Amino acid sequence: MIAKSFNQRLDRMQWHPTAVPTREIVDGILGQRPAVDLRGVGLTLLGAILGILIGVGLKGMVMPGTLWGPSSGLLGVLVGTMCIAGFVLSLPMAALGAVWHQRRPWLLPVSAMNLLMIVVILLS
């Protein structure tokens, strides 16, 4: 049987304008809250911190007056080498994170946030 009018559809559902939902229905709807998944927060935070350190190190390499900036000696060479190595490793790590996101799901948030923080700091 096909209901052709709005009232016929309401009659098929046995709905009345004064009907209120039962307590069980209200509790079922309000009680179902999605659980917060905090598993990836630590990895994302680790990637952000590493990206910030690498980005600040790279930016400080060209700014005079920083401890590891131009003509700073051995400290500048060590910090500069580590920051350049971190940046060079961040690029393939981000590509591998995108490719291997099914096999290694932890790699994508770390590498994406790492590269994002490096780019943001270098562009600021």
TrEMBL record:
Keywords: Membrane, Transmembrane, Transmembrane helix. It comes from the Bacteria. The keyword Transmembrane applies. The chain crosses the membrane at residues 40-62, 74-100, 106-123. This is Uncharacterized protein.
